[in-house]
Amino acid sequence: MTGEKIEDTFTLAGDLPVRRLGYGTAQLTGPGYWGPRGDAREAVAVLRRAVERGVTLIDTADNYGPRLAEELVAEALYPYPEGLLVATKGGVVRTGDRSWHVDGRPRSLRAMCEASLRRLRLETIGLYQLHRLDPAVPMAEQLGALEDLRAEGKIRHVGLDTVTAGQLTAALESAEVASVQNRYHLLDRESDPLLALCEARGIAFLPWFPLGNGELTGHPVCAEVAAAHGATPGQIALAWLLHRSPVLCPTPGTGSLAHLEENLDAAAVRLTAEELARLSALAG
Question: How far apart are CA 119 and CA 63, in angstroms?
């Protein structure tokens, strides 16, 4: 079925082209993103297969595991192929499977970034994202620390995670922001104002929980559209994101080779204008 045309790639910050459908590493770790998920060889196989399938954006974080996801990325993919962007995050400290502590102090951000560089075996992190803004530290100080690291060549581009459109506007007054990450999927459009700002400024938007953390798979409209394409509801949810905006770059995560193949096949689904309208109306 012929559908709406979509762009396969996005050029991050005007100089880093990536395939829009990437891969996220959170599911390579155990429950609560704590400890190992299982046999590390399976995680390595998933990462390598993602790159074999053409993924050029790997999204990870220092607190997944903690540290474990970054170590797996390096084990599987180093030396990194040309054109692969490994994005990571800092600014959150873990002390248990349900314990998340925001720490945006400049000295902490520097230490976290330098530790990620060592684990990932990189001289420069292509995209370093502030995992959460620390309400106890002025935004200008947090962004200033990242800009200092960028000036030193340790970071190429800066991203933000979980921000409002107002916070992004304020951040842009003192820093160059290449990407944002917020929760966004077929049934959750709370970040639509942020998405509009990203479109206007050419900023990548990496939606987390792009599959709604599983809640989309049983939706009847998703199922009907999926049946028409011989696809799964999850593939339809990902295809909708790719159609929704050219700046959306979903990075669904999985520890399963079969699920990885399913997710990546979503890039070939072309939704019709009528299907897009039906799906887009779900959050109305």
Answer: 12
Task: Give the separation between CA 169 and CA 258, rounded to whole angstroms.
Answer: 40
Q: Which amino acid is at 248?
A: L
Which whole-number Å values give the CA distances from 236 to 65, 103, 139, 222, in the listed order? 30, 37, 37, 7
How far is the C-alpha of 201 from the C-alpha of 135, rounded, in Å?
25
In three-state secondary structure terms, 135 is coil
Rounded to two decimals, the pTM is: 0.96
Q: Per-residue pLDDT tens for 259-277?
A: 999 999 999 999 999 999 9
pLDDT tens sequence across 20-63: 999 999 999 999 999 999 899 999 999 999 999 999 999 999 99
CA 103 to chain centre: 21
Instruction: Determine whether 129 is exposed, middle or buried from the number of CB atoms within 10 Å of its CB (0-12, 13-18, 19+).
Output: buried
Q: Can 64 be counted among the known catalytic residues? A: yes
CB neighbourhood size of 277 (10 A): 10
What does the angle CA 12 – CA 13 – CA 15 come to, to the nearest 5 degrees?
Answer: 75
Which one is catalytic: 64, 78, 128, 184?
64
